Amino acid sequence: MKMILHQTESVNLPISLEICILAGGLSRRMGRDKAQLRLGNRTMLGQIQATARTTGWPVRVIRRDLVPGCGPVGGIHAALETTQRDAVLFLACDMPCVGIELLGCLVDRFRAAPGSLFISYRGRVGFPFLLPRRTLAAVARQLHGREFSIQALAKVLEARTLQLPGRLARQLRNVNTRADWNRVRRAWSGQKKKP
Question: What is the pTM of this model?
């Protein structure tokens, strides 16, 4: 009985959270800055920022890592090192289809059991994900050990994973190449034409 009461209380506890969008990548496969590609009247980064702002939580864009050349783990480290919040919800600048319902699912699961939480899709973890600030030391160890894989980070953190239903999994499309960009643009145009 005590455990059930504790879980119920944790769901209602306010959480100190911010959203950080990682936008410091080199966009090598794309050949130009992915964050500046345009979807309608916004850049891809602008679209992600707009979605993030609808949550009501503070939103920051991480463009420079404190330890350069470490891929996304460098951005994660920079965000956790500089946050004033208890947890950070991480988004990638190349995933413009992520919607508010998906973010809500992540936050609800985190509230129920605050701890490292990653989206899992097709057997791999990735963006978006939520990390408590207390994971900073483990992220720093990954950097110093030159282990820059998000898969390895999730394993070290013993992160929980959230499997998404198919209708939400479509929001995980990311843009790495021109072919990816063309697919996302076509999907985006199709969604905008629906009444």
Answer: 0.82
